[in-house]
Design goal:
Helices cover 45% and strands 22% of the residues. The protein is of the alpha+beta class and 402 residues long. It folds into three domains: 14-69, Orthogonal Bundle (HMGR, N-terminal domain); 72-124 and 238-399, Alpha-Beta Complex (3-hydroxy-3-methylglutaryl-coenzyme A Reductase, Chain A, domain 2); 130-217, Alpha-Beta Plaits (2-Layer Sandwich), CATH 3.30.70.420.
Length: 402
């Protein structure tokens, strides 16, 4: 190690080059030792991890020095009644927020006692939106008309770049001489951002050649990736999914310690009116909490919690109780690629029964989306009930105080 440290100190070896000379585990250790030396900070805990660094350094993280460990709790069993998963599941939730797992666990209990959450995939489309520069507004309109009339040519170019992705739509938006083309793809069991970026470049080359519009950027922010945007809330992105459950008044009283009318009022005044007054894009209690906990546990890109939080929670009175539902229009997720193959994350996906590719392709990712929606529903139910019963502060004082 000393020889490598000396070369790092002298500048004859770069931190990012260590894996070219050393096995991944040793490279990580040398890099961590150098950073400890440079900063005077002990990184012993970062160096204690159970995952194999070989794949992580090759596919997931540059200049790796260790791993941050997040506690994983389990909530359930949660009965999910979807078109792609129809069974009880245990939810692995990676979180440092005390009371979150307990809250989801309570919501899971009432959903399961009610017969389960019915879940449905509403759409399955990952998007990428290249932006082109036209010569004038007249030229911009010509570009739009060409794209609208030549989808098969774009599909041929895009689909040639991938075995699993398929271009299924192209919607144009013009602002002056800027033409944004929002391309939509199915991506099998992958979340698919790399896949659709490569395919979009191929389709963009066809548009550029045919129309004379100049490609400015493969992503023109109408996608919209990892940023809160109304287009994702309305048109969807990734997997769009809904989950709902009907609860009797007795269940609401016995498990959630409140009543149906109070659930309806809290949801209306908090999630709907309160969110509207705040100018929020999501109309929910804390959907991001459950999305983030499942995403981190299961190897998803945590930045996509931005889209995942664009959820709407509804609570409607029905004879004898209430019908509670969550609709998540934009869940960019997958069961292959990204961080899903890291050992701990792969175990969490296996716990849910959705690890790896599905048969047919896309089956596991859609099942995972249904599970996430059911988990969000459990979290929404529990928090709304805690607010209605005025138990929220007490729960956090008991379970969430550091």
């Amino acid at each position: 190690m000393d020889g490598y440290l000396e070369r790092l100190r002298s500048g004859t070896l770069k931190l990012y080059s260590l894996e070219q000379s050393l096995p991944a585990k040793q490279a990580v250790a040398v890099r961590r030792a150098f950073i400890e030396e440079e900063t005077g900070v002990s990184l012993h805990a970062l160096g204690a991890y159970g995952i194999s660094p070989e794949r992580a350094t090759r596919r997931n993280c540059e200049n790796m020095i260790g791993a941050v460990q997040v506690p994983v709790g389990v909530a359930g069993p949660l009965r999910v009644r979807g078109e792609h998963v129809d069974r009880e599941v245990w939810l692995p939730l990676a979180t440092t927020e005390g009371a979150l797992v307990a809250s989801v666990n309570r919501g899971a209990s009432v959903i399961t006692r009610a017969g389960g959450a019915e879940c449905r995939i509403l759409a399955d489309r990952m998007t990428r939106a290249p932006v082109f520069a036209a010569r004038s507004v007249a030229h911009a309109a010509e570009v739009v008309r060409w794209v609208e009339g030549h989808l098969p040519e774009l599909q041929e170019a895009a689909d040639a770049t991938t075995r699993h992705g398929r271009l299924v739509g192209a919607d144009c938006s013009v602002a002056g001489t800027s033409v944004h083309v929002r391309l939509a793809f199915t991506t099998g069991d992958a979340m698919g951002m790399n896949m659709v970026t490569i395919a979009s470049e191929a389709a963009s080359a066809v548009i550029e050649s045919a129309t004379g519009a100049r490609l400015v950027a493969t992503s023109g922010n109408l996608c919209t990736d990892k940023k809160p945007a109304a287009v994702n809330a309305v048109a969807g992105r990734g997997r769009s999914v809904a989950a709902g459950v009907q609860l009797s008044g007795d269940l609401v009283h016995d498990v959630l310690k409140t009543d149906a009318a109070s659930l309806v009022e809290v949801n209306t005044r908090k999630n709907l009116v309160g969110s509207a007054r705040a100018g929020a894009l999501g109309f929910n209690a804390h959907a991001a909490n459950v999305v983030a906990a499942l995403f981190i546990a299961c190897g998803q890109d945590p930045a996509h919690v931005v889209e995942g939080s664009l959820a709407i929670t509804t609570v409607e009175p029905v004879p004898g109780g209430v019908y509670v539902a969550v609709t998540l229009p934009a869940l960019p997720l997958g069961t292959v690629g990204g961080g899903t193959a890291i050992e701990t994350q792969a175990e969490c996906l296996a716990l849910l029964g959705v690890a790896g590719g599905g048969n047919p392709p896309g089956e596991h990712a859609r099942a995972f989306a249904e599970i996430v929606a059911a988990g969000v529903l459990a979290g929404e139910l529990s928090l709304l009930a805690a607010l209605a019963a005025r138990h929220l502060a007490r729960a956090h004082a008991t379970l969430g105080r550091g």
